[in-house]
TrEMBL record:
Residues of the Lysozyme inhibitor LprI-like N-terminal domain: 64-157
Keyword Signal found: yes
Keywords for the protein's UniProt record, in alphabetical order: Signal
Signal peptide residue numbers: 1-18
Pfam family, any one: LprI
Protein name, UniProt field: DUF1311 domain-containing protein
Length: 166
């Protein structure tokens, strides 16, 4: 019961502006064009940085800033999931067309590649946070890193297998 009271007290002690700040209004990761002129990682960093500036002007720092990184990662992850779904559907259609058992060739390699990549992404972002930013907004730094790395993964998959998806 004491824990619930503490949580509710903390929630209601935030300024109204902090509760009204919506990071999703300041982040639109899909505008970071895959294969475009600028780096998708730079685009993600710019959007998160701009969102954080808005968060600090209109809301209570850390929680609003953290929301910026979280929203960036959620959007990037959604884009990757959509791309991966299309790629998996294409791989399975090819396997069916070739009379292969599903999950024995293209879709297996795609799934194995994605699972290995997730491990690399997570380890890379944990490593990133252990250097200069350890314990200073750690979760926010990891989420922003995951957004950048996820957008680069979409770019990588588009380069490697995108021609087969159109």
């Amino acid at each position: 019961m004491k824990f619930k009271i503490l949580v509710l007290t903390a929630l209601f002690s935030f300024p109204a502006s902090a509760q009204d700040f919506q990071a999703a209004d300041h982040i639109d990761i899909k505008t970071c064009s895959i294969g475009g002129g600028s780096s998708v990682a730079s685009c993600v960093e710019e959007q998160v940085s701009s969102c954080r500036v808005q968060a600090n002007q209109r809301a209570d720092g850390y929680f609003a800033e953290r929301a910026c990184s979280d929203v960036a990662f959620e959007q990037a992850d959604g884009l990757l999931n959509a791309f991966y779904g299309r790629a998996m559907q294409t791989a399975e259609e090819y396997e069916r067309g070739q009379g292969l058992a599903l999950g024995t060739m293209h879709s297996k390699y795609l799934r194995d590649s994605q699972r290995a990549w997730i491990d690399v992404r997570d380890a890379t972002c944990e490593l990133h946070v252990t250097f200069p930013d350890y314990n200073s907004g750690r979760d926010s730094v990891v989420a922003e890193c995951k957004a950048r790395v996820t957008m680069r993964r979409i770019e990588e998959l588009q380069f490697e297998i995108g021609e087969y998806l159109d």
